[in-house]
Amino acid sequence: MAQLKQEIAHLPRFSPERLRIEARKEQRKARLLTLFIYTFLIVASLPIILGYGWLVLNSFSETLAYGVLPKGWTIKNFRFLWELPSRYYPDLWRTTWNTLLLAVGMTIIMILVATPTAYVISRMKFPGRNMMLAMTLILHSFPGVTLLISLYYVLRSLGLLNSIVGVFLVKAGLMLPLGIWIMKGFFDNISWDVEMSGLVDGATRMQTLYKIILPQVKPGIAAMAIFSFINGWSEYIYVITFIQKKESWTLSSYVNSIIGDFQFIDYGLLSATALFYILPVLLFFIFTQKYLMTVTVGGTKG
Amino acid sequence: AAAQEVITIRAWTVGPDTPAFYRAENLITAAERLNHILEVVGADIRVEVDADFWTDEWDSFRRRVILASEEGDPDVVPDILVSSHLDIPVWSSSGWLAPLDDYVQTYWESTYQDFFPHLWESVSFEGKIWGVPQDIEVRMVFYRKDHLRALGWTEDEINDLARKVEEKEFLLADLQALAKEMQAAGLVDYPIVHRPTSGPDFFQFVVAYGGDYYDPETNKLVIDKAALEATLQFFADNVKDGLTPSGMTTWPWPAVHRAIAEEGTAGMQITGGMWFWAEWQRDFGIPEEDLWENLTWSLIPAGSEKGRPNQLGHPLAYMVTSPSHHKDLAFLLITLASEVDLNTRHSLEAAKLAIRRSQTAFPRFLESEYLAEAAKLVPHQIFTAAHPAAGRYATVLHEAIGGVETGALTPTQAVDLVIQRMTQAAGDDLIIR
Amino acid sequence: MAAVVLKNITKAFGSVVAVDNISLEIPDGQVTALLGPSGCGKTTTLLMLAGIYQPTRGEIFFDEVMVNGIPPKLRNVGLVFQSYALYPHMTVFENIAFPLKLKKVPKDEIRQRVQDIAKVVQIDDLLQRKPAQISGGQQQRVALCRALVKNPDLLLLDEPLSNLDARLRIETRAEIKRIQQELGITTILVTHDQVEAVTMADQVAVMRNGVIQQYSSPEDLLLKPANMFVASFMGDPPMNLMEAELSSENGKSVFRCGSELKIPVPDAIAAALQSRRDREFILGVRPENLELLDEPHELAVPGTVFMVELLGRDKLVDFRFGEVALRALVPADVAVSQGEKKWIRPQAHRIHLFGKADRQAVPLAG
Amino acid sequence: MAAVVLKNITKAFGSVVAVDNISLEIPDGQVTALLGPSGCGKTTTLLMLAGIYQPTRGEIFFDEVMVNGIPPKLRNVGLVFQSYALYPHMTVFENIAFPLKLKKVPKDEIRQRVQDIAKVVQIDDLLQRKPAQISGGQQQRVALCRALVKNPDLLLLDEPLSNLDARLRIETRAEIKRIQQELGITTILVTHDQVEAVTMADQVAVMRNGVIQQYSSPEDLLLKPANMFVASFMGDPPMNLMEAELSSENGKSVFRCGSELKIPVPDAIAAALQSRRDREFILGVRPENLELLDEPHELAVPGTVFMVELLGRDKLVDFRFGEVALRALVPADVAVSQGEKKWIRPQAHRIHLFGKADRQAVPLAG
Amino acid sequence: MKRRGYGMIVLLLLPALLIILAFYVVPAVLTGTMSLTNMDHRLSWNFVGLDNYKAMLQDTILSRVFWNTLLYVFGTLLCFNVTFGLLLALATSYIAERQAERTSMFFRALWLLPRFTPPIVYGVIWLWILDPTRNGLLNGILNFFGGRPVSWISEYPMPVIILTNGVIGASFGMILFYSAITSISKEYTWAAEVDGAGWLQRIRYVTLPLIRWPLMFVTAYQTLSLLTSYEYILIITGGGPFYRTTVWSLYAYNEAFGGYYASYRFGYATALTLVLVLISMVASIIYWRVFRFREMMSEPKIEVI
Ligand SMILES: Nc1ncnc2c1ncn2[C@@H]1O[C@H](COP(=O)(O)OP(=O)(O)OP(=O)(O)O)[C@@H](O)[C@H]1O
Ligand SMILES: Nc1ncnc2c1ncn2[C@@H]1O[C@H](COP(=O)(O)OP(=O)(O)OP(=O)(O)O)[C@@H](O)[C@H]1O
Ligand SMILES: [Mg+2]
Ligand SMILES: [Mg+2]
């Protein structure tokens, strides 16, 4: 103790002068850091800002001079909202409806499948529990898109070709690993005491799941819903592969068709369609993003 | 009117170039005409066409056809398909198409005898006709006239270029020399550009260097090592001399079009297609006068004494699927859609050649100076091989060109690559010489 | 109400033995406390009684019925967690009503019963709030209501007071005690706080490392600790404990504690030890059982005051004898100050001795 | 070391005023406690001193230097959180070494200093463990080491003992006190536990709703509470408080408390109240200041024992007079049982009176 | 009792098991079988034994593709999906901490935008930015300053696909890291400040170690995602120039469907796919072990079912 006292005796002591100088230095450092961070964010985001800015400008202008500068304001690029680009396009609203069906269907399947699975993995005791989680990671290593042909055969034998249902089932299957990880993270964070309370209060395990656990993982379900909705909304390759009827098209096929074999360069129409396509998810996101920012992958903290 | 039975004929057609939409539209018009006749004769059936016009990519169109055909569901498989004649060997040998000889025979006198005879070759496979030629085009070289003028060429000299090419007075080496002049004069960024994507066009250079890619006798693909290497050397040299950008195979299509047609930052497009004329007007909004003012074209020049100048045609054809319940009607519609006036409006809109003799005398066709001019190249037409692996061959050749252009491969190595890949793909159906 | 019996209960989690072969008989209608330091297996025992954990070995009986394997919902126990474990998404009303809802009690009756029980603990004006909107003390009462509303046969309380501040703790202690007495529910109270155990329970089981150390009335825990652990665990401030060697000096028996302290042995104790062979013990005496005298006394030890600490209404007086410390607790108004010389006399019948090897209490007459 | 002065400090979070215009002078080298119920603004005050929160209004001085706006890293304070906030991914050694590492102290010196300080609190054999692998008490000492190792000018302790069990609490209390005294560091201790405040601090500031109620020595808090809140908050068991009307009966002054209790007024108090106009007060007397007599006495009130509760070494004896309860605390060995009749006598100089309206202490002579 | 309990587990797992069976197990078996055939556009099952695997050994392009894949996967992962995602999360949480919650949200939404955008549109945006003529953004800017247009895609093919994929990939890490960072107990932050840590030191010594689970998860999960992704490469470079950006999955895709005249070598393509599955599975097992993901599983406390 005495030694300790001696040791600390020669350390620099509290001095107003030093304090003031250092405080000023710290303040300058803090201001620089803030400046640096904003600069970083803005510079790093430039491609996105410019790219999407171009998209917006394009959609409201007649042409772009030098491909960059918009000339002549117009809303004619949005004419697809009230007329078909040609008679070979399916109805826009029907296509939109199909897209919605796909995205919502996939979201629902994800919730119905990933939630109970994650619950079991997170909170039930049974042999092979670790295996299950390991397996979800391994499942993710299946390159879904290159299994295209096999999936085609599977859907064919299930009689699900040419239906949105088939597509969203496949999509949900491929997103399952992510859904399980996200939901597991949320289930992990629920207090065991609360679930035990439910049991003691006379609930079965199933009842605790419905009445006590699920209401508490709503943010998780919301987060997962956002992920799957967005994923389903922008799906292209499965739609175009498993759905041959144009009536069952979704917006992605619509946009692809407008862009064509990269030979079509009506950027105005393209941008307008793309905007129309992005807007719903963007709105959806803005209203739900607070849930997205609560996603954890679980595990005990620390 | 009495109770009518309405028969729906479904057709899948493909652009993907948007001006080609009459491939679908003509069927619809044909149905209207047919219905008119049916009404006049008091028949109690009517025909309705449910037509699809694909503007997404070729590969997704083909995938769609293949998967639908494999599924074989008559509710999904269309009655009529429009696709490349190259698909005929593949699809017919899979049993997805109906042979059309009898039908063609039926309407021979009224219609089909009028078709240019050589077109039937392109739609035949193993002795049967599987398709009705729908259009045909010319693939040639486009030159910027303004640059030629800037190099001091007179109008006469410019107008004489096509002839010089045809008569082998202007070879690929001269084309390279011309490119270097443009380059030196600072007129262009890159004097020579070509299509970025794979396509049959590149076989033209093999022919230009005196080689061959297909042996119709044995129905086998041919790899002519010397001509192939010369072709690859040509592309390699262009890049080495800075005439072609080394990443040409990664350019987006619109950039190529703009460079040659709109801005003139390129001097020559050596894998041009005559239908570009339509796209440039319709999609890029360039007035036709400007095109006339700035562009001229020729055959692909010969590369060597042995070689020959040429242009390639890649016919598209109407096909009837084998599961179709209404093959007769489908074919009737195809026949009606191939009427001179209908096919001509397609030719005009999409800038394609005539497929019928009488078309060339058809007033509206004659009105088009462009079509008339382009049609002059027809005698030098070559076709893509009618072999199931021909598509693969085109892809491999394009790869090899990409390889030499980026410097990843020497022309010799590239030839080896082509041989290796084609041996894998075609097996015994390959002659290497 | 139910009498509960645990027979040779062991609970192991993998290689960790949380509860080690314990047997207990818990009488009907009384409060029994499980007392012990953190990690000693109290909660584990409780959760076995609730049916959440299955014992690894042994049997649990409710009123002579073996309940091993019977799921919690059939056991009719009420459980209050240390964390309260209120359902965060339900209002206070819904929380309390939950067990009744599961039993399909009619709505009107639920409302009536919830309101009645809420009135008892004075939270009837909070029923529409969510748990996050009420204070810790109120949450505690909600948890209690939820456990009581279904008329459980057995009430289990897991450290029910540890989250409350001193004042609330005292009030709630009385409250629980009152309700328990009124309803006469068999109650098991888990705590690490000896004051809580002693004031609330009719009998206390002291646990350590999964083993029961002593099971007796609160008084006996203080007055007759069965072993050194219980002796040291009970009492605040803690008992003075030191190694002591019985020897004799000038014909008198003394305990030699370290090099500087010699405590005279009262005759009764000397007599009781006569029959024992071992001479080395642990001697324990509680600070409140040390009297401070101003004058010498036959059974007293002289010492100089090392430090004085005021503990509310008492004073803790610290003496040092070499490495051995003796602390005495005296009323705050006793005048004593640092450096002063005092005579310290342990109350004879409050001296505890433990075997040096086995640390078990040495029986002393009386 | 530093003397700390808070001048009219206010801290508001949005519309919530957590700390409301407080002023304090904290002397150099001493221990000052901030005591108050949950949510009264203690932690907020502490965090302002550490520099983590900026005061909304007012100024903080360290040794006459205004430190508002100076970031925590320059203030050289040591802070021990209630939850300890040990970095879970670092070993004990790394936790303690962290502040030194940030100061770029050479490695050898770091090792030396960490070992020295760890030895002081006896955790030198735990240095390689992770926080999750040591007990709460040990974690607490690690947190203390981390705060002390950089030789802070000011040591801030936020409820440092609340997570410990009774026994550990007592030991750690002594430990902290000893270290503080030896190093002479100005220390501010935040607690809601009055025993902790009273035993450890040289002076105590009692807070409530962000306002300081009384700032004085621990003795004065108990003996001279400034208002009713302090009186009721301090002391365990809590002070008996009841409305009392000064009136006279048979020529003697009495306090009428409710309908059934009349407490005779000692003369000194009667004299002190003479000058006041108001007759209604709150009367307070601590349970330990009520004597139980077996016989009548002039200043005693007769009553029947309603309930007896054993609190360790004391007994709490509960009397009821209608709606008014009186609790007396007597040593455990005093014989008293339910239903017995006793005379209760408040110690005259331990009676507290508060104005009925303002709840401020009424000055009584002495 | 026990049996009834497992019944519930089976019931809850059933949907997932069915989906896994239908969309993973069966296709995997089919793919395995298909890889033993020379299936082409005719979709007929002609068994040719291990020919496809032998062909793979002779495929001279494949080694190039393999190295491309490694470069692409780890380049994108390390530069963007983890590192850049982390930087974004740190930067936006720094801003949010300083009462600019809305600005922070704006940037986060901005970075999620590419993820919401249909791939083709996203591709078109980049094709515009990188256009080799003056009509592109970059070349337009270069031109403004008098530079010659650069053919970005062919000159820097690998950086281009890493960048374009990374801009999308970063948002996944950003979301997970951001929520992990904001859920770190404030007391650790305060303790570090009092201990004398600046922002960077706090990140280095406190934040990063505390978000190690998300860091490891994103690393593992995104490795696998990248191994199997090719969509954006297909759109932006098509795998060129001359295979310089062809990754394994794109190669398999091209063998099956790609090109002006698709190859339709389904037998060979599925054999390639299967090898990719094996590679990814090995990767996922390695990650599972090395990152000790097992420790993310805490033992369930309730023993009744
Ligand atoms: N689910 C579990 N898995 C493994 N070990 C456990 C588990 N639950 C408890 N333990 C261990 O068993 C022992 C007893 O735990 P228990 O929770 O019963 O203690 P406790 O007496 O309630 O302690 P506290 O006062 O800290 O709540 C401890 O060592 C604990 O680490
Ligand atoms: N960041 C904050 N935002 C809003 N209100 C706050 C914040 N921090 C504290 N408060 C409020 O300020 C008041 C004082 O809080 P503080 O944490 O200082 O209390 P405390 O005395 O430390 O209480 P405890 O004993 O519960 O720790 C409380 O009402 C609290 O709800
Ligand atoms: Mg416990
Ligand atoms: Mg606090």
Give the structure's gist in a few sentences.
Chain B has 433 residues and is an alpha/beta fold.
Give a topology summary.
The complex is a heteropentamer, with one copy of chain A (302 residues), one copy of chain B (433 residues), two copies of chain C (366 residues) and one copy of chain E (305 residues).
Chain A: H1 2-9, H2 16-59, E1 61-65, E2 69-73, H3 92-123, H4 129-139, H5 148-158, H6 164-188, H7 192-200, H8 205-216, H9 218-233, H10 237-242, H11 251-259, H12 267-292
Antiparallel strand pairs in A: 1-2
Helix pairs in contact in A: 2-12, 3-6, 3-9, 4-6, 6-9, 7-8, 9-12, 11-12
Chain B: E1 5-14, H1 22-41, E2 45-54, H2 58-71, E3 80-84, H3 87-93, H4 101-106, H5 117-122, E4 124-125, E5 128-129, E6 132-135, E7 139-144, H6 145-150, H7 155-166, H8 172-184, E8 190-193, H9 203-208, E9 214-215, E10 220-223, H10 225-240, H11 253-263, E11 266-273, H12 276-282, H13 288-294, E12 295-298, E13 311-313, E14 316-320, H14 327-337, H15 340-350, H16 363-367, H17 369-375, E15 381-383, H18 390-405, H19 411-426, E16 430-432
Parallel strand pairs in B: 1-2, 1-3, 8-11, 10-16, 13-15
Antiparallel strand pairs in B: 3-14, 4-5, 6-14, 7-11, 7-12, 9-10
Helix pairs in contact in B: 1-14, 1-15, 10-18, 10-19, 18-19
Chain C: E1 4-13, E2 16-26, E3 31-35, H1 42-50, E4 57-62, E5 65-66, H2 72-75, E6 77-80, H3 92-102, H4 107-120, H5 136-148, E7 154-158, H6 166-183, E8 186-191, H7 194-200, E9 203-208, E10 211-216, H8 218-223, H9 228-233, E11 240-249, E12 252-257, E13 261-264, H10 267-274, E14 280-285, E15 290-293, E16 301-311, E17 314-321, E18 324-331, E19 341-346, E20 351-355
Parallel strand pairs in C: 3-8, 3-9, 6-7, 7-8
Antiparallel strand pairs in C: 1-2, 1-4, 4-5, 9-10, 11-12, 11-14, 12-13, 14-20, 15-19, 16-17, 16-19, 17-18
Helix pairs in contact in C: 3-4, 3-5
The complex binds adenosine-5'-triphosphate (ATP) (2 copies) and magnesium ion (2 copies).
